[in-house]
Amino acid sequence: MSVQKTDNGRYRARPKVGRTVITSKTFDRKKDADDWHAQQLRSFHLGAFVHPSAGKEKFGAVLDRWRAQREGTIGAKTFKNEGYALKHVEPLRNRPIASLDKGEWEALYTRLLRTLSRGTVLRTRDSLSALYEWAVEENIVPKNVIRASRVPKGTAERPTREIYPYNLAELRAVHEAMSERTNQTNADIVLVLGLTGLRWGELAALRVRDVQELPYPAVRPTRSKSDGAPLRNVTKGGQPRTVPMADDVATIVFALIDGRGPNELVFPNTVGTFRQEANWKRDAHWDDVKRGRRVHDLRHTFATLSLGNGVDIKTVQNWLGHSTAKLTLDTYGHYMKSDADTAGIARLNGALAGDAGGTAARKLRRATSGE
């Protein structure tokens, strides 16, 4: 029999496949032993059986093995950011992975929210979910407990960094200031980034074949080359996308690729290989002209200029290569052009026009109350 009563009155379940006992466990009640026995056999025949000893492995050891095989299969920057996200789970490294259930992880999220933004905690959860998916495939755990876990609503005590885009006049001023300090190609890169939303790695890897003239001028980034990382034949978003070129950008790009072969780079360095962001920032005197921005704020500039001029959110999502329109909306929604806002500001300005001796306040009250 596969469930037997022991000398001390308990019940030992020993599920077998053929003559091989695949695991065993002792229970106080026979019903519990029978149920567990049936569950183990069912899992075995469905290919989902995990030996209980596998779950005894320390969480930290599983994490380290997963990270080791993951390095080189994802982008260097993504791997680095993932490492930052997973630093927050260090206190649980010495726990057996099988002992960490949904409630344990949700308690960790709550603790992290005391000092971290919800976005950071969500990124930690996403990385953990990827780890658990791998652990399921490796028969270390029977299921991904992170899937069912939820990050509660919350805000960190420290503020998160806001995006800081240029307006169009500022972007042109930076371009002009850079043109006075460096060669024209270096200066033009700031305009191309600010008017296409390309990531630096996408611009560095852009080839002549990735530029189209018809049916409209556009670039189609398909690869990425970040500083110190190998060339990736995929962008961060995972899919090629088509980004239209405004006239200013098209003039720059078509002049650069004139006479070049299809596999040549659009923005090579002085020896014809991939241009590095750090070298460009130095040669273009970025720190002297940037007005407190990061290079990545040029991508935000393109997004906010597009939305502020009435381009719909779905189109901007596609241009940026975001996975969902919600991501685009959450990041840039407050920059979208709003007829209600425009009308409200017009009424405010009308009420304030000709203000003298506090009459504007009375006009504003009448305007907003419909008197």
Automatic annotation (TrEMBL):
Record flagged with keyword DNA-binding: yes
PROSITE patterns (alphabetical): CB, TYR_RECOMBINASE
Domain Tyr recombinase: 161-347
Protein name stated in the entry: Site-specific integrase
One family name in Pfam for this protein: Phage_integrase
UniProt entry tagged with the keyword DNA-binding: yes
Signal peptide: none
